[in-house]
Prior knowledge:
By secondary structure, this protein is an alpha/beta fold. The chain has helices at 14-28, 51-59, 74-79, 88-94, 118-140, 152-162, 169-175, 221-235, 250-258; strands at residues 2-8, 34-40, 82-85, 103-105, 143-146, 181-188, 191-201, 204-212, 240-246, 262-271, 276-284.
Amino acid sequence: MKHVLFVCTGNTCRSPMAEGLFRLYCRRFRFSNISCSSAGTAAFTGEDASANAILAAKYYGADISNHRSSSVNVHMLDNADLIVCMTSGHLRALQPYVPQEKLRVLGDGIPDPYGGTLKEYLRAASKIATGLLDILNLDFALEIKPFEKEHIAELTRLERISSSMPWSEQAFLTELTNDKARFYVAQYAGSVIGYIGAYNIMSEVFISNISVLPSFRRRGVASRLMRHLIDVSKAEGAETITLEVRVSNQAAIEFYKGFGFVDAGIRRGFYENPKEDALLMTKELTERQ
């Protein structure tokens, strides 16, 4: 059984609507192995959901009239497999206490309708409903699989879309027989939507590729791939993971920092099309003496 915790500020508007709608979707789509709850970063215990939140949730088919607010605590955070925050501010507040891989912002963030009209609550509920479908699809229906020959055609198409220096079919074919290669694909509804490629050489893992289809970016796919590679690397006894990223790619740099990667140096003129330096980043997997 996996548990999802929804977090907002007061736990009377957004996160109760998210919890109620998520329960509804789990019943409709028959996800019997998922449970959920909600809490607030600055909530008072025992308060009712706001009247407009109850009405907005009811409009989408969920009954949250019996909801009572809770303040988020360490026990809740530890017991959750996935923590879905309503805004990036909530996520930042929880980062010191929760592994990065457990945290997610719902959609592109849900503005607080507190004190607003029913129309504003319905707008928030609509954004919540859309974001929840992504979570069910990408966090619970997405599959991470070892790279196989059957994936090569889709991977080369993905490379042409995403990379200024795309890999060829032959390049991928070569990795099938490379015992140092650790390549994994993210597959959704039977199609490859992303992949990560790395090499484990004498307990040091080097990431060479990570790519996601544009329409699936910022939806947790890259995080799932990275978490999988980190788990595999730890299981194999690797000590470090290293990667290179364009110095101008601030979004990717922040993404890697969220997984514990730190700056380790610069490789001058490493990239082509356009010419650019590479930032070398590394993550320690074991505590060195």
